[in-house]
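Retro notes, structure queue

What went well: the backlog is down to a handful. What didn't: a couple of records were mislabeled last round, so from now on we paste the full input next to the output in the thread. Example, using Nitronate monooxygenase from Bacteroides hominis:
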Amino acid sequence: MNRISSLFGIQYPIIQGGMVWCSGWRLASAVSNAGGLGLIGSGSMYPDILREHIRKCRAVTDRPFGVNIPLMYPQIEEIMNIIVEEGVKIVFTSAGNPKTWTGWLKERDITVAHVVSSSKFAMKCEEAGVDAVVAEGFEAGGHNGREETTTLCLIPAVREATTLPLIAAGGIGTGEAIFATMALGAEGVQIGTRFALTDESSASDIFKEYCLRLNEGDTKLLLKKLAPTRLVTNSFRDKVEVAEARGASAEELRELLGRGRAKKGIFEGDLEEGELEIGQVAALFRRRQSVDEVMKELLEGYRRASDKVSSFLL
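Corresponding output:
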C-alpha cells in the first residue's frame, strides 16, 4: 500500500475525477465499491442537490468517497458547511487558492487534495498544508492550465518541487498510462474521461456515444481568456474558434458561453450548441463499459506493463 492508498483508505490508488454533470452518486459509489476513490462533482450541483448525492452515495457504499469542490463556486460557504454537516472526510479542491479553505477543512479533520497544473502551484499547495496534490496535464478534459504542460513533463517537475503525495491526472485512461506516471514519480492517478464514459456516469448517453467516436485531434483547448477548457468539435466550438481568432475579449467570450452551456452538452446531449468537454484520451476508446469493467482493465493493463518493462532490463 502506498501513500495515496493509505491517505484515503482505499485498495487501489485510482481516483475518479469529480467532473461536472458526470460525477454523481452512482459513479462515485461504483468507483469506491471497486476499490478506488469515487468523487462527487459539486461544480454542477446546487447545495441541496449535493447533500442529496452525498446521502445517496453513503447509502450504497461503506467505503471512502469524497467531494470535488471548485473554489470559484458562488455558494462556496454553504457547500463547505454541507461537507461538514454530512460528515464527508475527503475533499478535492480546484480552480482557486488552496490557502483559502485548506486550514478550515483540516481543522475539521477533513483530508484535502488540491488540483494544480504547474510545479509553482504545487509548492503553494505544500505551503497551504494540503495532504496531497493532483498534477493535471494539458491532455485533460474540462478546465485546464494555461501553461499547456503535458502530463509526462508535469509529473517529474512536480515530484522534484514538492514532497507531498502526488496524484497524476490528464490523459490517463489505461493501466499502461498509470504505470508510466508511477515511473515518473506519481503515487496515484486521477482518471476523468474514462469514467465519464461509463454506464454509471450521469452524462447523457448521447454525449457518451459521441465521445466514443472521437479521433485524434477532435478536441482542442480553447477559452483561455476565461478558464481554459478542452472542447470537442461542434457548432458551439466553431463559434468560439472564430471569436478567438478575431481577438474577442473575455467579456465577449463570456457572453457567447452564456449560462448552462456545459449542462446542455454533457447532461442534456445537445451535440451542436452544448459545451462538450472531454479529454484527449477519449480517442482510445470505442465501447461503453461499466466501472467494474474499466477498473479490471486498468489493473490488468498496469500488471501487463510492469511485466513487459521488466523484460526489457539487460
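Agreed that this is the format going forward. Reviewer comment attached to the example: The CA atoms of residues 267 and 273 lie 13 Å apart.
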